[in-house]
Amino acid sequence: MKVAGIQRTSTIDFPGVLACVLFTRGCDTDCFYCHNRDLLGPGDCLPEGEVEAFLKKRRGLLDGVVVSGGEPLLQPDLEGFLAALKAMGYRVKLDTNGRQTQRVLALVEAGLCDYLAIDWKAPRQQYLQVCGVPPEQGYDATRETLCRLAEKGVPCEARTTLYPGLTAGALVELAGQLPPLPRYRLNFFRTPACARQRHLPLLERPFLTPEQVRAVEPQLRAVQPGLTF
Ligand code: SF4
């Protein structure tokens, strides 16, 4: 398991659970607004023994572990790692792009994951520009995952970053393309510290403010009553 960093405590990443956050290395997406660019490619990782020692030491002090990234589902030994976390008594939250529908469902079925946060990134027609991934591999696969989780009543949330260029109307439409989920979280845009040269014009576009989101809050709540921002 390639863990590039640990946030030792978080009260906000796992709803209702005091948790640490593990950042796995590697991502198969290339969002123009990414804040974790240093995690995307190869690079340093923590020794496995150090991660294990940290997790063992924090048992009883923390209730949960958030496995984030990057994209955790790129780790071939993810299942074994989550099983080890469960064996230590932790509640587990997985942050993922949700593109591996069958694998996500299998993790849930196996009881390896208590809560999922899945990125619902962009409207289908903008998906390639925003994420660098064709919509049939990104938007369609993620939508399928979220629909299946909603159908099964799995505790989960979809998350949308209000990236520059996303309008209030497109946001309402995007939220309405999913079934109502237990939680639908909006993250306001923050300018990343670094970006690819070709992404700079995209970052210069206007982005939604809290006031603009509040103006369409009734429409958003009508389709996603679990809205939070
Ligand atoms: S999925 Fe997350 S880590 Fe990967 S490029 Fe997008 S924002 Fe960055």
What do these coordinates show?
With 229 residues, the protein is an alpha/beta fold. The chain has one domain: Alpha-Beta Barrel (TIM Barrel), CATH 3.20.20.70. 32% of the residues lie in helices and 20% in strands. The protein contains 9 helices and 8 strands. The protein has helices at 48-57, 78-87, 101-109, 127-131, 139-152, 168-175, 200-203, 210-215, 217-223, and strands at 3-10, 19-24, 64-68, 91-96, 115-119, 156-162, 183-188, 227-228. Strand 1 (3-10) and strand 2 form a beta hairpin. The protein is globular, with a radius of gyration of 17 Å. The structure holds iron/sulfur cluster. Iron/sulfur cluster binds next to loops.
What is the gist of this entry?
The protein is 32% helix and 20% strand. It has helices spanning 48-57, 78-87, 101-109, 127-131, 139-152, 168-175, 200-203, 210-215, 217-223; strands spanning 3-10, 19-24, 64-68, 91-96, 115-119, 156-162, 183-188, 227-228.
Blueprint of the fold:
Layout: E1 3-10, E2 19-24, H1 48-57, E3 64-68, H2 78-87, E4 91-96, H3 101-109, E5 115-119, H4 127-131, H5 139-152, E6 156-162, H6 168-175, E7 183-188, H7 200-203, H8 210-215, H9 217-223, E8 227-228
Parallel strand pairs: 2-3, 3-4, 4-5, 5-6, 6-7, 7-8
Antiparallel strand pairs: 1-2
Helix pairs in contact: 3-5
The structure holds iron/sulfur cluster (SF4).
Residues 27, 29-31, 34, 36, 39-40, 69-71, 97 line the site of iron/sulfur cluster (SF4).
